[in-house]
């Protein structure tokens, strides 16, 4: 089959002319790209192996960072092994579906033998039930709402498969109302937080990882029942640093052609900072957002920080 013979990069290049800003369609109350919604039955019925690991995040909350750290931990900090393929091939994106001949996340997973590491942006209520029935391990990375919003805005500008973000001021309201791909940030972070103990989810915060990556990588290591030396953890801290990953073609999505990710608009790996939101919000926007945030987060005590 030609589909199997094509490299991932070549498949994307060949499908570039079919790429468009796909509309969002509600799936059980959550807006998802139309290509995902149209294939929802297959996604929802995916049954993982008990040895599979799920990495879940709201979009632009440190997903690629977490993927790289986990891959490095699983390969004892071997940088070359972790350059064996682009991130999207090493750790398939469960629900993503694109125009042929680009393989879907399910296509890529079919070609891999367990144990597999799998990425998703699905809120907890849409995660295929097999992950819970098979007691798969799940790592959830969450990022403070303001920085997450800024990063998602710039991503939607350059990702030409997602709806046009429109002006910044309007985008803030879309975020607050959950009218973006994968829905409400508030529902997303709260859903995994409330279920973290019952479902044995490792819940990590972006700001904690920025502040002390050694400590947080060690938490991931213990959760995965791995044992690597402190020297290896130090090496992983360096290899998974923002600048090293930004310069790593197997992690920076530079293999995705311009008709899909136009990195001349905004880099996929843009800043990776905590507190960049202050460069985007006006004082009035910040006050409005803070009031809404306090109301939407009043039922949880997730220790988010907006600066470190």
TrEMBL record:
One Gene Ontology molecular-function label: sulfotransferase activity
Domain of life: Eukaryota
EC numbers on record: 2.8.2.-
Gene name, Swiss-Prot/TrEMBL: sult1st6
Alphabetical list of PANTHER family matching this protein: SULFOTRANSFERASE SULT
InterPro entries (UniProt xref): P-loop_NTPase (IPR027417), Sulfotransferase_dom (IPR000863)
Organism from which the protein derives: Sinocyclocheilus grahami
Keywords of the record: Catecholamine metabolism, Cytoplasm, Transferase
Family: Belongs to the sulfotransferase 1 family.
SUPFAM superfamilies: P-loop containing nucleoside triphosphate hydrolases
Keyword field contains Mitochondrion: no
Name the record gives this protein: Sulfotransferase
Any one annotated GO CC term: cytoplasm
GO terms classed as biological process: catecholamine metabolic process; xenobiotic metabolic process
Enzyme class, UniProt record, top EC level: transferase
Sequence ranges assigned to domain Sulfotransferase in this UniProt record: 50-300
């Amino acid at each position: 089959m030609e589909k199997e013979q094509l490299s991932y990069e070549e498949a994307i290049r060949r499908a570039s002319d079919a790429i468009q800003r796909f509309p969002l369609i509600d799936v059980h109350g959550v807006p998802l790209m139309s290509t995902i919604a149209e294939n929802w039955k297959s996604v929802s019925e995916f049954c993982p192996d008990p040895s599979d690991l799920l990495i879940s995040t709201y979009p632009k909350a440190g997903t690629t960072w977490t993927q790289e750290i986990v891959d490095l931990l699983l390969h004892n900090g071997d940088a070359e092994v972790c350059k064996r393929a682009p991130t999207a091939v090493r750790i398939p994106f469960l629900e993503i579906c694109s125009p042929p001949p680009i393989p879907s996340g399910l296509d890529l997973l079919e070609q891999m033998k367990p144990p597999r590491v799998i990425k998703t942006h699905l809120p907890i209520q849409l995660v295929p039930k097999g992950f819970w029935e098979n007691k798969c391990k799940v790592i959830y990375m969450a990022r403070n709402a303001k920085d997450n919003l800024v990063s998602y805005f710039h991503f939607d500008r350059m990702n030409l498969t997602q709806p046009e973000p429109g002006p910044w001021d309007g985008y803030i309201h879309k975020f607050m109302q959950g009218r973006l791909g994968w829905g409400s940030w508030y529902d997303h972070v709260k859903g995994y937080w409330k279920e973290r103990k019952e479902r044995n989810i490792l819940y990590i915060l972006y700001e904690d990882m920025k502040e002390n990556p050694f400590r947080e990588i060690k938490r991931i290591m213990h959760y995965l029942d791995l044992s690597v030396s402190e020297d290896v953890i130090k090496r992983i801290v360096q290899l998974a640093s923002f600048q090293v990953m930004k310069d790593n073609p197997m992690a920076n999505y530079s293999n995705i052609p311009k008709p899909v990710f136009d990195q001349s608009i905004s880099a996929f790996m843009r800043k990776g900072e905590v507190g960049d939101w202050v460069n985007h919000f006006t004082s009035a926007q910040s006050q409005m957002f803070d009031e809404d945030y306090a109301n939407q987060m009043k039922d949880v005590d997730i220790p988010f920080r907006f600066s470190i």
